[in-house]
């Protein structure tokens, strides 16, 4: 264990920030699970409850951002502390977006387009499952401060994209065969897209965690590496 | 960015007061025309280290130095080097602003020349140039004959910087130059340090980490007489390589 | 807890202490003032230009202090000229060069002890060393040398203290600008220490001007009919003259002694005032 801060209030503030992030993470995690469940079962009530949770998530985003600002103002954080706070600010933005996506899925459930259950839900669930893997790994990486897990999360995002492409192709063929109404097909397509987006956000979280723990900025690195003018700053 | 040359090259430098060794084999290449900050806890040897760079350390009773410090490749501890002449090449600004109380502002600026022999005919020009260089000219141009000590603390410190640059040194050493002055004056002096960094090699000791982060290009962290880490300031304060550095700059003092 | 009446004991103690301190200031001042007023009243009838410009006489009404006054000034000037440069130089050595060496420490302890040696011992030393051994005779020079020796420890200690009070930061600033030790001492340290050195010198000169015992031993005469005209001249000084008058049987001479005391005190005050003005002039340059 690294030693604690001499200023105990600072130590407590950083711990509180971590606690708040965990609470927000749990909330978002519940929303994702609920959205999947509601989609499978067509449980409109659960979908509506989950939409309500999104307000809490939004509220927490604002509060944690403000708390980070306060710590920065008062403590002029540097090094690992600074990276942790910057990562926290990125994390809350991504968590809020995941929450929005989950809420959107729930909205689609409450609209009850015909043919969503069970056929549509089955089509999407593979994407949802792959996305959940990414999100699980990213969140565990945060809780356990594991850089390796964060990298696994980023790698797992490829599976989500594959599942999404597969689901899209299936949808397209079913729609062109006339098995699926065009309206329903588009709705299911957009739900699949939402899960794919959640995984993207979780990837961003994993990148923020790697930055916080290891000071590596791995965002867009394949693109930057191949950029024509390699002006390293 | 990596095109800067080395001004002062320190290798295997030990320094002691009597039996008490305060610096343990420091190796460091101080880049030319950049601001280098020295940080570390009290008693880590950062001030002693600074004083080894212009041979002020040896003025203290029972102080000894081992190792080499090269200024542009020439060892300043070589037998042929006169420490008095060396100090005209490596100027120093101290913690407490110390203008000579019996001297006027203009005389204080010229102090280096007055003390060491003679004031040339173009003394007025020199005074104006140095005071402009120290960003003090506008504030004192109408009272150059007033005592240096009649100025405010921050002005006094800038006067001392003007005094130091009058002898046209290559290197300016500053020992906690802002620790005795208020925040506004500190901002002025920091701004000045930044500007002077264009033309001079500056080494600043500070116990204010934020200040080191604000003013320096490179930062060295010393602890218990050893150089723990020396790196680009932005790197050191965002991602230090050593756990000791991380603990110190984030405020984990055990 | 913060009521006034609970703190009344403390307030009484505070007032009591204040009154004791005030008394400590007033009582010596009153005694001194009484003495001076008493002497001034006694001597007033003889105080005149004639008294100051006349030579001693067997007739009390015609006796004056001129040779003693001139002698005092002569001896004091010589004392200052000898003691101040030597004293300051010694202080500079002790404070700037010999710092922390054991020789300097031993010298310093001895100097402090010398300041406590009774002045008559210095008189005997002067008699043996200057009057006899160096062959100066009972002269102004021998007296000046003896008194210089007497005040040297005070001058050295006061100068040393003044030099010590010059902040190390100024010395460092000077070295940092590439000045040598000599340049630093001459242009930075000594000008700053000057007011302190002057203060010490004032005190020591004041002491020397009132000294009687060593000069009796060295051989000041009480009856001079001419002015000292050179370093080898015999001499009188005011304290000796006053002392001599007080030993005469005629009561009129006591009045002369009182008038002589007033003259001596005036000379002392004038010298002090001059020195204080000089000191303030230098101090004003420092803020």
How would you characterize the largest beta sheet of chain A? none
Q: State the order of secondary-structure elements of chain B, H for helix, E for strand.
A: EEEHEEHEHHHHHEHEHEEHH
Radius of gyration of chain B (CA) equals: 18 Å
Estimate what percentage of residues of chain B fall within beta strands. Answer: 25-35%
The shape of chain B is: globular
Helix content of chain B: 25-40%
Q: State the helix count of chain A.
A: 7
Taking all Cα atoms into account, the compactness measure Rg of chain A is 20 Å
Terminus-to-terminus distance of chain B = 36 Å
Major sheet of chain B: 6 strands, mixed
- For this structure, the quaternary state is heterotrimer
Low-confidence stretches of chain B: none
Structural features, described:
The complex is a heterotrimer of chains A (233), B (254) and C (287). Chain A is mainly α and 233 residues long. Chain A has helices at residues 8-41, 44-75, 79-111, 116-144, 147-177, 182-214, 221-225. Chain A has one domain: Phosphate transport system protein phou homolog 2, domain 2 (Methane Monooxygenase Hydroxylase, Chain G, domain 1, Up-down Bundle), CATH 1.20.58. Chain A contains seven helices and no strands. The longest helix of chain A is centred in the N-terminal third of the chain and has 34 residues, at 8-41. The model of chain A is unreliable at 226-233 (pLDDT under 50). A six-stranded mixed β-sheet of chain B has the order 6-7-8-3-9-10, sandwiched between helices. The model of chain B has no long low-confidence stretch (mean pLDDT 87). Chain C is mainly α and 287 residues long. In chain C, helix 3 crosses helix 10 (238-246), helix 4 (102-114) crosses helix 6 (140-164) and helix 8 (181-209) runs antiparallel to helix 11 (251-284). The model of chain C has no long low-confidence stretch (mean pLDDT 83). The interface between B and C is medium-sized, with 31 and 24 residues.
List the helices and strands and how they pair.
The complex is a heterotrimer of chains A (233), B (254) and C (287).
Chain A: H1 8-41, H2 44-75, H3 79-111, H4 116-144, H5 147-177, H6 182-214, H7 221-225
Helix pairs in contact in A: 1-2, 1-3, 1-4, 2-3, 3-6, 4-5, 4-6, 5-6
Chain B: E1 6-17, E2 20-31, E3 35-39, H1 46-52, E4 63-71, E5 74-75, H2 83-89, E6 90-93, H3 105-109, H4 111-115, H5 123-133, H6 137-140, H7 153-166, E7 171-175, H8 183-196, E8 201-205, H9 209-215, E9 218-223, E10 226-232, H10 233-238, H11 243-250
Parallel strand pairs in B: 3-8, 3-9, 6-7, 7-8
Antiparallel strand pairs in B: 1-2, 1-4, 4-5, 9-10
Chain C: H1 8-44, H2 49-53, H3 66-97, H4 102-114, H5 119-133, H6 140-164, H7 168-176, H8 181-209, H9 213-218, H10 238-246, H11 251-284
Helix pairs in contact in C: 1-11, 3-6, 3-8, 3-10, 4-6, 5-6, 6-8, 7-8, 8-11, 10-11
């Amino acid at each position: 264990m690294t030693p604690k801060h001499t200023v105990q209030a600072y130590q407590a503030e950083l711990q509180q920030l971590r606690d708040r992030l965990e609470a927000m993470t749990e909330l978002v995690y519940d929303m994702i699970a609920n959205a999947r469940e509601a989609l499978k079962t067509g449980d409109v009530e659960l979908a509506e409850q989950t939409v309500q949770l999104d307000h809490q998530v939004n509220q927490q985003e604002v509060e944690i951002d403000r708390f980070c600002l306060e710590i920065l103002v008062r403590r002029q954080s540097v090094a690992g502390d600074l990276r942790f706070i910057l990562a926290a600010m990125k994390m809350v933005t991504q968590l809020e977006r995941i929450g929005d996506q989950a809420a959107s899925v729930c909205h689609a459930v409450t609209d009850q387009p015909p043919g969503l259950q069970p056929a549509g839900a089955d089509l999407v669930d593979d994407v949802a499952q792959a996305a959940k893997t990414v999100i699980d790994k990213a969140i565990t990486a945060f809780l356990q401060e594991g850089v390796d897990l964060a990298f696994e999360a980023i790698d797992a995002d490829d599976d989500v994209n594959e599942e999404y492409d597969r689901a899209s192709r299936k949808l397209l063929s079913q729609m062109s065969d006339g098995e699926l109404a065009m309206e329903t097909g588009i709705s299911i397509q957009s739900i699949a897209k939402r899960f794919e987006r959640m995984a993207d956000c979780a990837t961003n979280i994993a990148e923020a965690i790697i930055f916080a723990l290891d000071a590596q900025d791995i965002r867009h690195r394949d693109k930057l590496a191949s950029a024509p003018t390699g002006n390293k700053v | 960015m990596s095109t800067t040359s080395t001004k002062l090259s320190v290798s295997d430098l030990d320094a002691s007061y009597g039996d008490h060794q305060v610096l343990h084999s420091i190796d460091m290449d101080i880049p030319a025309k950049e601001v280098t900050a020295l940080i570390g806890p009290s008693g880590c040897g950062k001030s002693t280290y600074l004083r080894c760079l212009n041979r002020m350390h040896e003025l203290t009773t029972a102080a000894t130095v081992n190792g080499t410090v090269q200024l542009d490749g020439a060892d300043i501890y070589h037998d042929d080097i006169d420490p008095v002449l060396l100090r005209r090449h490596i100027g120093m600004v101290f913690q407490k602003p110390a203008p000579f109380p019996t001297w006027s502002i203009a005389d204080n600026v010229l102090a280096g020349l007055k003390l060491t022999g003679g004031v040339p005919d173009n003394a007025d020009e020199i005074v104006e140039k140095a005071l402009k260089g120290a960003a003090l000219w506008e504030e004192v141009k109408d009272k150059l004959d007033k005592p240096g000590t009649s100025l405010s603390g921050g002005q006094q410190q800038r006067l001392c910087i003007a005094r130091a640059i009058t002898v046209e040194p290559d290197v300016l050493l500053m020992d906690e130059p802002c620790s005795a002055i208020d925040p506004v004056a500190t901002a002025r002096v920091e701004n000045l340090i930044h500007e002077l960094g264009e033309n001079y090699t500056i080494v600043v000791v500070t116990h204010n980490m934020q200040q080191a982060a604000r003013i320096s290009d490179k930062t060295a962290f010393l602890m218990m007489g050893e150089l723990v880490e020396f790196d680009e300031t932005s790197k050191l304060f965002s991602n230090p390589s050593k756990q000791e550095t991380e603990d110190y700059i984030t405020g984990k003092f055990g | 807890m913060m009521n006034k009446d609970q703190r009344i004991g403390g307030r009484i103690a505070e007032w009591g202490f204040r009154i004791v301190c005030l008394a400590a200031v007033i009582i010596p001042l009153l005694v001194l003032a009484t003495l001076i007023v008493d002497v001034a009243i006694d001597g007033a009838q003889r105080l005149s230009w004639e008294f100051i410009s006349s030579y001693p006489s067997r007739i009390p009404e015609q006796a004056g202090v001129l040779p003693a006054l001139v002698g005092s000034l002569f001896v004091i000037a010589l004392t200052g000229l000898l003691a101040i440069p030597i004293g300051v130089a010694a202080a500079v050595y002790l404070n700037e060069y010999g710092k922390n060496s054991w020789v300097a420490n031993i010298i310093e302890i001895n100097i402090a002890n010398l300041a406590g040696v009774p002045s008559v011992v210095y008189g005997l030393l002067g008699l043996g060393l200057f009057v006899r051994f160096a062959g100066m005779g009972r002269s102004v020079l021998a007296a000046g040398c003896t008194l210089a020796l007497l005040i040297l420890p005070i001058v050295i200690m006061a100068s040393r203290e003044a030099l010590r009070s010059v902040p190390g930061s100024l010395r460092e600033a000077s070295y940092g600008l590439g000045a040598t030790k000599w340049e630093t001492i001459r242009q930075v340290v000594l000008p700053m220490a000057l007011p302190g050195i002057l203060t010490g010198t004032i005190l020591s000169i004041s002491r020397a001007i009132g000294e009687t015992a060593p000069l009796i031993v060295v051989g000041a005469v009480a009856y001079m009919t001419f002015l000292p005209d050179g370093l080898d001249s015999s001499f009188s000084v005011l304290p000796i003259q006053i002392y001599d008058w007080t030993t005469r049987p005629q009561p009129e001479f006591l009045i002369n002694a009182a008038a002589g005391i007033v003259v001596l005190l005036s000379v002392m005050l004038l010298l002090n005032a001059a020195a204080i003005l000089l000191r303030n002039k230098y101090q004003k340059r420092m803020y």
